[in-house]
What does this fold into?
Amino acid sequence: MNGNPAAIPGQTAHRYDLRVYYEDTDAGGIVYHANYLRFAERARTEALRALGIPHAVLVRDHHRMFVVRRVKLDYLRPARLDEPLSVLTDPRALGAASIRLRQDIVGVEGVCAAALIDLACVSTETGRPARIPPAWRDALKGWEQAAPPGPEPLGGAAGEDGTKGGSAAGD
Amino acid sequence: MNGNPAAIPGQTAHRYDLRVYYEDTDAGGIVYHANYLRFAERARTEALRALGIPHAVLVRDHHRMFVVRRVKLDYLRPARLDEPLSVLTDPRALGAASIRLRQDIVGVEGVCAAALIDLACVSTETGRPARIPPAWRDALKGWEQAAPPGPEPLGGAAGEDGTKGGSAAGD
Amino acid sequence: MNGNPAAIPGQTAHRYDLRVYYEDTDAGGIVYHANYLRFAERARTEALRALGIPHAVLVRDHHRMFVVRRVKLDYLRPARLDEPLSVLTDPRALGAASIRLRQDIVGVEGVCAAALIDLACVSTETGRPARIPPAWRDALKGWEQAAPPGPEPLGGAAGEDGTKGGSAAGD
Amino acid sequence: MNGNPAAIPGQTAHRYDLRVYYEDTDAGGIVYHANYLRFAERARTEALRALGIPHAVLVRDHHRMFVVRRVKLDYLRPARLDEPLSVLTDPRALGAASIRLRQDIVGVEGVCAAALIDLACVSTETGRPARIPPAWRDALKGWEQAAPPGPEPLGGAAGEDGTKGGSAAGD
It folds into this structure.
């Protein structure tokens, strides 16, 4: 798990920093679980901008947009009010009309939440799948190829995911 | 997939109804993806209340709380402004200090989002796992035993989940 | 202040009930202040629906929408997790392209937040002010005329608003 | 109205920059009105930090916190997806247990929303008003004294606020 990106050679994760405000917390005193998806979306937006392929241009010039198709999200430790967080975003798989991203939200003591996000490229008019335009595809391809090889199980530590290898009920 | 709960004999899903307001939507004109987790949490809260084991009492009298440990969430079709939604909540697996729920958010044309939610029972003082108190456990057990048997793959229709059976990178 | 609407003869306030969930609270253990505006908006939507003039129809058939132009919001007591709240909505002034509403969010011990909301009717195409269509106007007029007469200062009890009568900087 | 802070000699407003993401928008294609209060709160938090009097320390060491007592908020023009915004925060009045701030949320074409926010300092244990601790008070005093003199009506340009000078019902 890449809680410390600096320690990982060839690290290509995009990093987006934010801070936890009252709006992000709940009465349990910690970040409300749904809000990690808000943080992840901010980070994806900035990652695309940093790659030179802003999402807003995709919508405006190509009438296509990325929408979230699937989320897997592990909550590993709570983030707290005022805590500085980093969202590390890495490509995992690139299709003709889809992309899978790994996004880790990292706090001062390590990873708070680890996500796999499957995005689909769809037409803004029909909502149906549409190929990723060449410029976006090329940039994503370059990002993906620079990413560290090999699968990386969601949740990090082996054995944490009790549903692996023959998962049972409902998984 | 139980888009139409009335059609399913022995249906034990708890049903929570809500409507989509502006606050729930985004500039794409549809429900913002993170907000399905808000809807699911409202439904869980009401399901526990309906079972006679309110979460607030768990916190107040037992100093324990359920926290979300893992989420798997498939987005199947967008929900829109003003659309009436139902959240159907079913137990899937009950442990000493955990429970897995299946939650489907169903709109007028079918399931919009299908979730598997793993909850952990933790101490409100230490944040560490703690056994589910007997009254909560008994009620959850009764609910689980009334639920339909057999695994039900997330995402519903077979083959929809392209990552099943030999899933690749990072799943 | 109408904390107890039943006690007020001729009460015409629309009442919308809701409950406070974790999503609504913050690390202070109370409802996050911005969320009262979300509650108020839900209530406005349902008030229009109850009057037979749904906002969605205004948008779809008349290409007009109500947008918030001004908010005055007094926070009187905190609402807490699990608390049942009612939003009481009353018309205060009706213009050709605007309406002012009084909205009180009432909890178990009285009014939690009292709002005055100025809405403008605008064209969905241009965003510019547009006359309220006759059917909406007639229904709003009937609602307004049924409302209790006389001004009702925001914040309720006289003297609560320290800025009244010679208000200083920036009020 | 200080839409262009650079044009104002002796400008002491704290400036906090942010960007509009999908999470902030609604189906109308613009920033959801309640979210300006979220932006304003982020900015207040950073303003206190920049003054060397972080809110978190106030809570931890003094068992006091600032809570919002009253909000006046004018919506002047919509902010849109991806738009860079600045929140300009200025002190307006300082009491023993309260402070009034002016906060303008400024977009690329000018002020989107202008707020007056009244904060009360309260005990975290009792929720009752409590004096602002000396260090916080001194820093706020210095900030206030550096601020431009004179009242500045909310809403900016004269005549914009149609309710001024003899305002009627409920204002």
